[in-house]
Specification:
It comes from Kaistella pullorum. The chain has eleven helices and ten strands. With 341 residues, it is an alpha/beta fold. The strands form two sheets. It has a six-stranded mixed beta sheet, with helices on both faces. A four-stranded parallel beta sheet has the order 5-4-3-6, sandwiched between helices. The radius of gyration is 19 Å and the shape is globular. The structure holds 4'-deoxy-4'-aminopyridoxal-5'-phosphate (PMP). 4'-deoxy-4'-aminopyridoxal-5'-phosphate binds next to helix 7.
Length: 341
């Protein structure tokens, strides 16, 4: 039988790439989006969930009925919960209170226990989702903590899968890889593999305005003044994750909430690809990079589209939400112009 699988986990990885024909027209290069929403858990995080849990099993750290704990903005939680169901583990997740209700409902639908923690407290505050998850993992016997921000297997998952897929899909022609960085695992693991194949491939990270990653890359210092609350979920940080291999990144670009939201909507309307908020962030980052660096016609750019837009229906795809942020028709960008009449 072909295209028939034993369980849902066998469908992780091998995601398709699609050419972008409209939104990146101003760049002379060919641009492909790698659609990580085609993973069964609808995001790139399926790759790290299965990789880290398989590794823990090999080490004998997990037995039937064990508990898997994680901090998550939603996507990793969904992926971990999915893997836990098939493998027979309990899943406990600590999420930030920036996470939309529908994302939390998704996690609960897959049987996870969810703790909601304040987003705007320092990472070492006992109320932060890092500290809450760490404490739960310490106090729960027979448990593992995925710890995606500081787990080298996060990088390795993408080194083993995402990087090789991109290399094969572009037949080694890729010249630029661009991805949003949260933990940094996607970009770092893919970059590590691709740079081994061709060190000239440019690796571009996309950071959020309000996060410290870009300035840390440039100065080696944490600039506390960079830190302020922002809306884009899943990218940027107020800490330095060890899953981000800064030496593999050639350049960071920083995108703001408004432009990332605008691009997300534009990608849906012009390419018919309904991606999450960081899909727009990635393309906004690419356009900003393209404005400052010239692309050639035979350049081949791959942009990672990390997840699906269905999780953002009350956020970036909601006109009310956009209005509340002051993003719609504010004189800078006119949304109406995106809708064909
Ligand atoms: N986009 C979204 C929606 C995410 O949830 C994440 C993961 N936090 C990223 C991008 C960034 O991926 P990574 O953690 O591998 O850097």
């Amino acid at each position: 039988m072909t295209n028939v699988y034993n369980n849902i986990l066998d469908l992780i990885g091998n995601t398709p790439m699609v050419r972008l024909n409209e939104v990146t027209k101003e760049i002379p290069a060919t641009v492909y989006a790698k659609l990580e929403s085609y993973n069964p858990g609808h995001s790139t995080k399926d790759r790290i969930a299965i990789h880290i849990i398989n590794a823990a099993e090999k080490k004998g750290l997990l037995t039937p009925g064990s508990t898997v704990v994680e901090t998550t903005s939603g996507n990793t939680g969904f992926s971990v919960a999915m893997v836990c169901i098939i493998k027979g583990y309990k899943c406990i997740l600590a999420v930030s209170d920036k996470t939309k209700q529908e994302k939390i409902a998704y996690l609960k639908a897959l049987g996870a226990t969810v703790y909601v923690c304040p987003a705007n407290v320092p990472a070492d505050d006992p109320r932060s989702y890092y500290e809450v998850a760490r404490r739960i993992a310490e106090e729960t016997p027979n448990s593992i903590y995925i710890n995606q921000y500081f787990n080298e297997l996060n990088i390795d998952a993408h080194y083993q899968t995402t990087g090789p897929e991109i290399w094969e899909q572009t037949e080694g022609k890729i010249t630029h890889l661009i991805a949003c960085t949260g933990t940094g695992g996607t970009l770092s693991g893919s970059a590590k593999f691709l740079k081994e194949k061709n060190p000239n491939i440019k690796i571009i990270g996309v950071d959020a305005a309000g996060s410290i990653l870009k300035s840390f890359h440039e100065t080696g210092k944490i600039n506390k003044e960079d830190i302020h609350p922002y809306q884009i979920e899943g990218i940027g940080k107020n800490l330095i994750p060890s899953a981000l291999l800064f030496d593999k990144v050639d350049e960071f670009v920083r995108v703001n909430d408004e432009m990332a939201a605008y691009r997300t909507r534009e990608i849906a309307l012009k390419e018919a690809i309904m991606g999450g908020y960081t899909t727009g962030a990635a393309i906004q980052g690419l356009l900003q990079y393209g404005a400052a660096n010239s692309f050639k016609e035979d350049d081949v750019v791959v942009a990672i589209f990390p997840d699906h837009g269905s999780r953002y229906i009350t956020k970036v795809y909601s006109d009310e939400w956009m209005n509340e942020q002051g993003f719609v028709n504010n004189g800078v960008h006119n949304y109406d112009s995106l809708y064909k009449t």
